Amino acid sequence: MPRNAAIVGGGHADWGKREATWKDLVQEAGKATFDDVDGLGPDDVEGLFLGAVQPERFAFQSHVAPLAAELLGVNADKMIARTELACASGQAALRYAWLAIAAGQLDVALVLGVEKMDLGDAYMEETQSSMTNVLDREFDGVNGLNAPSFFSMFAQRHMHEYGTTREQLAQVSVKNKRHAANNPYAQFQQEVDIDDVLNSYPVAPPLCLLDCSGITDGAAGLLLVSEQKARELTDTAAYVTGSGQSTMSGNSINNLPSLSGWPQATVAAEEAYEQAGIDDPVEELDVAEIHDCFSISEIIEYEDLGWVQKGEGGQFVEDGRSELDGDIAVNPRGGLLGCGHPLGATGVSQALEVYKQFTGEVESARQVPDSPETGLIHNLSGSGSVHSVMTLARDPQ
């Protein structure tokens, strides 16, 4: 029988435009992670899984998982790996750690996500060029298709098909930046209103600057352990209850099945829900961290994660159903729009947020009310051709 696995703690480096090196970020997040968990230290770690997307281009360093282990004094004598799945790399690292524990290969795993993306203003062209590698560089990247222009097409099509409004897109950013203003690790800690979003610099119509997540340095870590080990350490763990992942044609955008939705997200969510025994996600999920790389992303995800019918995502946010006291509290840490998006670290940070929401260890202004007990994390990657979903709960059953 597969074994249950649980998050028992974790920590962050500060996120933003940092003068810190890639190595500095590893050590900041690693130290914060071990400081967060009494009874576990580097000597206890049997496996290390590191989400990192482009250290070769951003930090001129490869073979980074053993490097991170050495920096943290971890031997990882049973298993070690770097995961690269673009924006879902952090969740991929967590998923592999969970599978290793479920299979009985490990009892204690360290999961890290680390990205050094800001090379300074003088190297912005290099940074942007590196980001086009996430798409099909030879077919899409060379024709100017980067992340903002790609998601602007989804926004335009969704607005055309379903009547989604510019104000509804802006409301996603307003909500998430309000949460980030109360998150000391977030890159952007300032509240905005709808007019601020609508009047911000136009990037790729209809998306403006405040509809877009930032280029960000950052790192986060988690300690994942077997259920038996978790019960020895704490009575406030976050157990992995389900995990789904799906990919379909679309790494080149001409092969995408849709420009207004992601059927891959639906497949991944349904797989995770089935494993977790979730029949009605709106009724059974308390908190969710989902991939709002652009404001339109969150609206589409409400729909394709099965929370509302297709075309009703804009109304979901307009009606306050994704607020802290709504049907599902969405992105209480501030999401990618508020925290920034250090690619390999985002999924790890999302899972850490759900854990901290369960334990009540977040700032009161962004704490989900009524002691949340169930949660979800979601990432898309590349051209949205891959979607990853994981469910978490206080009770492993």
From TrEMBL:
One of its GO terms (biological process) is isoprenoid biosynthetic process. The keyword Transferase applies. Gene3D superfamilies: 3.40.47.10. CDD domains: SCP-x_thiolase (cd00829). Residues 7-228 form the Thiolase N-terminal domain. It comes from the Archaea. The keyword Cytoplasm does not apply. Pfam families: Thiolase_C_1, Thiolase_N. One of its GO terms (molecular function) is acyltransferase activity, transferring groups other than amino-acyl groups. PANTHER family: ACETYL-COA C-ACETYLTRANSFERASE, NON-SPECIFIC LIPID-TRANSFER PROTEIN-LIKE 2. This is Acetyl-CoA C-acetyltransferase.
